[in-house]
Amino acid sequence: NAGVTQTPKFQVLKTGQSMTLQCAQDMNHEYMSWYRQDPGMGLRLIHYSVGAGITDQGEVPNGYNVSRSTTEDFPLRLLSAAPSQTSVYFCASSYSGHNEKLFFGSGTQLSVL
Amino acid sequence: RKEVEQDPGPFNVPEGATVAFNCTYSNSASQSFFWYRQDCRKEPKLLMSVYSSGNEDGRFTAQLNRASQYISLLIRDSKLSDSATYLCVVFLGNAGNMLTFGGGTRLMVKP
């Protein structure tokens, strides 16, 4: 039982490049989400999903896309990377929603030059 | 004003000390409250939920004060391993269906 697996751990992009952050969980959780963490600002919700085929925007969705084709996977796509997207990204899951214990992946440190 | 505010610290305390953190929230409709712990460069992990009546888990006690809109975390008999950042998390429920994280309070326990 691996929990929430997030890849890559580190990534450097040039402005305008695109990439996908991968997230997979093996706990059969319905709810999955992506957060970004910036110094002094707390984690902020980017997108979330309450089940396969269902996604919704969080607090800071601009510049990011998600899809949820299976219960296990919830990739985050950066369409055209900008320096403002330099951050640490965390994927998280829970059994059914925001109001439950969240299990986090180990994070991706992304730098956009 | 931030929705969830925490003193960033750091709180520097000796081993064995008792330390308390507060966290204030702005929306009186907030329904659920949590404390998460985050070690340096690691993912957050749930420390405890905060119940209206207050709750205790070993050396950790969490309390909620709805009238003054704050939650607290008390750590007794601090250990070196308690050194971490403690994140206050608030759920608005139907008023805003997502969690709001505070910026965290850093605790450093010294020998």
Note down, in words, how this protein is organized.
- The complex is a heterodimer of chains A (113) and B (111).
- Helix content of chain A is 0%, strand content 51%.
- Chain A has 113 residues and is mainly beta.
- In chain A, strands 2, 4, 5, 6, 9, 10 and 11 form a seven-stranded mixed beta sheet that branches. Chain A has a four-stranded antiparallel beta sheet with strand order 1-3-8-7, with no helix packed on it.
- In chain A, a hairpin with a 3-residue loop joins strand 4 and strand 5.
- Chain A starts with a strand and ends with a strand.
- The model of chain A has no long low-confidence stretch (mean pLDDT 94).
- Chain B is an all-beta fold and 111 residues long.
- Helices cover 0% and strands 54% of the residues of chain B.
- Classes of the chains: A mainly beta (113), B mainly beta (111).
- The interface between A and B is medium-sized, with 19 and 22 residues.
Properties at a glance:
heterodimer; A: 113 residues; mainly beta; 7-stranded mixed sheet; 4-stranded antiparallel sheet; 11 strands; B: 111 residues; 6-stranded mixed sheet; 5-stranded antiparallel sheet; 54% strand
Layout: helices, strands, pairs:
The complex is a heterodimer of chains A (113) and B (111).
Chain A: E1 4-7, E2 10-13, E3 19-25, E4 31-38, E5 42-51, E6 54-57, E7 64-66, E8 76-78, E9 87-94, E10 103-104, E11 108-112
Parallel strand pairs in A: 2-11
Antiparallel strand pairs in A: 1-3, 3-8, 4-5, 4-9, 5-6, 7-8, 9-10, 9-11
Chain B: E1 4-6, E2 11-14, E3 19-25, E4 32-38, E5 44-50, E6 55-57, E7 60-65, E8 70-75, E9 84-91, E10 99-101, E11 105-110
Parallel strand pairs in B: 2-11
Antiparallel strand pairs in B: 1-3, 3-8, 4-5, 4-9, 6-7, 7-8, 9-10, 9-11
